[in-house]
Amino acid sequence: MIDFKQIPTPCYVLEDRLLRKNLELLKYVEQEAEIEIICALKGFSMFSTFPMVRQYLAGSTASSLNEARLGFEEMGSKTHVYSPAYLDTEFDELLTYSNHISFNSLNQFNKFKDKAIAAGVSCGLRINPQYSEVETEMYNPCIAGSRLGITRNQLGDTLPKGIEGLHSHTLCENDSFTLERTLQAIEERFGSLLKQVKWLNLGGGHLITQADYNVEHLIGVLKGLKTRYPNLKIIMEPGSAVGWRTGYLTSTVLDIIDSQGINVAILDLSFAAHMPDTLEMPYKPIILGAYQEPVAGKPTYRFGGMTCLAGDFYGDYSFDKPLEIGDSIVFDDMIHYTMVKTTTFNGVNLPSIGIWREDDSFDLIKSFGYASFKDRLS
Ligand SMILES: Cc1ncc(COP(=O)(O)O)c(C=O)c1O
Q1: Where would I find the H helices in the chain?
Q2: Rounded CA gap, 242 and 237, in Å?
Q3: Separation of 1 CA from ligand 1 center, angstroms?
Q4: Dist. CA 103–CA 124, nearest whole Å
Q5: Phi/psi of residue 19, each to 5°?
Q6: The dihedral of CA 183, 185, 186, 190: what is its sign?
Q7: Percentage of the chain with pLDDT > 90?
Q8: Whose CA is nearest to atom 16 of ligand 1?
């Protein structure tokens, strides 16, 4: 049982045993469906856990030179790469860390294909199947005018020479039934082209480790796909599913003020800087031990961040007992995406990073200070 008293604030703390549970499930899918699952670094880059991650997953997928290098150095294997556009100045180095590269347009493929093929890196195209069930436009790559992926009308009946794979990413926190319908759309539009390639990367957005995800249905869908296209190696690259519900962001109440009848507790962290998805998506983060919605008659609080951004707050939550200055407030499920998206806006420090080990000990892996803030400025 995790003992938050041993953990400083603010701190992202991952529980090793929860990560292992997720990885075991992903490995099970990989084995049963005979596919490859790689970790999307954009969603989960906590490299101090990679020695464990690589025991279960086949590698990583990167969206930039920095991520590709991190995957190569810390996961210990070459990465899959996809980016809307590659830089001339980075491309040669990028190839040294990569084994698969997906291009977002035929222009990009034509520009870089000779170098990639000469380096022995397998080339693919990102397709836009024009089907996505993602309701938040910010996360929907199939909106009109989307820059992500090639629509069917831009490709002929035969894929360009040198293309060995197709890549599609149109899911976000979706289940296997959405995947099934998405595959129908992909096959309807790109079925004849799927027969011409060696691999199909189904992107991320598969929330396989969510409690009610129907894993057996997923395995059936993937096996069906394999039966229809025995030529394909199928790859999935989830990020969220790796870090899903594996840890917390700890904080301390610094002050409590009454703002026109609303109790506001100010924390030693920031929603804008340390949990940007809560404001961007938006979604109301879960606080351990709190009622997620206000309960009449119970002490109720709004939580404010340390920055001067007026909107840097979330609420309201109720508790059984009134809060006091110095109390600890723990946000749940703060490992995937939050850690990679933190900023030092307003000069706030980045939260520390730690691991609650399977033997119930705590390791403070890293703390940040002035150097991390100053490093980004000049
Ligand atoms: C191309 C691609 N692959 C994989 C992912 C990972 O998605 P998720 O973390 O939702 O599984 C993303 C997320 O945006 C992506 O854009």
Answers
A1: 16-33, 50-56, 65-70, 88-96, 106-118, 176-194, 215-228, 240-243, 271-274, 276-280, 338-341, 370-374
A2: 10
A3: 31
A4: 6
A5: -65, -45
A6: positive
A7: 97
A8: 169
Residues listed for the chain: 378
How much is the pTM? 0.96
| Residue among 247, 175, 169 at smallest CA distance from 210 | 175
| 233-236/60-62 β-pairing | unpaired
Instruction: For a ligand 1 pocket test, name from 44, 128, 134, 169 the mutation site with the most ligand atoms within 8 angstroms of its C-beta.
Output: 169
What pLDDT is attached to residue 39? 98
Tell me, in angstroms, the distance from the centre of ligand 1 to residue 117's CA: 25
CB 333 within 8 A of CB 244: yes
**Sign of the dihedral defined by the CA atoms of residues 197, 199, 204, 207, in that order:** positive
Q: What is the pLDDT at residue 1?
A: 85
A 10 A CB-CB count for 120 gives 9
The β-bridge partners of 13 are 248, 354
Strand 199-201 with 163-167, pairing = parallel
Residues lining ligand 1, Cβ inside 6 A: 40, 42-43, 82, 169, 172, 203-205, 237-241
Ligand 1 center from residue 47 Cα (angstroms)? 18
pLDDT score, position 149: 97
Identify the pLDDT of residue 136. 87
Mean pLDDT by 10 residues, the chain (378 residues): 95 98 98 98 98 97 98 98 98 98 98 98 97 91 94 97 98 97 98 98 98 98 98 98 98 97 97 95 95 98 97 96 98 96 97 98 98 96
Among 315, 285, 287, 281, CA closest to 300: 315
